[in-house]
């Protein structure tokens, strides 16, 4: 799995996850349970992870949906 978005905006993450599901790209939101430790203040960011084989496709879909500014830089 490859991190593609990191955010504490649950609406953004839900939308991005929905786009991945509609495209048939395996994805998951990591660190959701960390809100228990932080007291549900929304300070800790959650990560959208996608299947490593679909990173380019996922980035295109998210960019086309207007979420290009939210994408993490590619790892070297």
Automatic annotation (TrEMBL):
Family matches, as Gene3D superfamilies: UreE, C-terminal domain (3.30.70.790)
Where in the numbering of this chain does the DUF2007 domain appear? 1-65
Q: Which InterPro entries match?
A: DUF2007 (IPR018551), N-reg_PII-like_a/b (IPR011322)
Pfam families tied to this protein:
DUF2007
Official protein name in the record:
DUF2007 domain-containing protein
């Amino acid at each position: 799995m490859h991190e593609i978005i990191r955010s504490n905006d649950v609406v953004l993450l839900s939308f991005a996850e929905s786009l991945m599901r509609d495209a048939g790209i395996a994805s998951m939101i990591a660190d959701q349970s960390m809100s228990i430790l932080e007291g549900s203040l929304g300070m800790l960011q959650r990560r959208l992870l996608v299947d490593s084989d679909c990173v380019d496709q996922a980035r295109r879909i998210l960019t086309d949906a207007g979420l290009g500014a939210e994408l993490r830089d590619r790892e070297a």
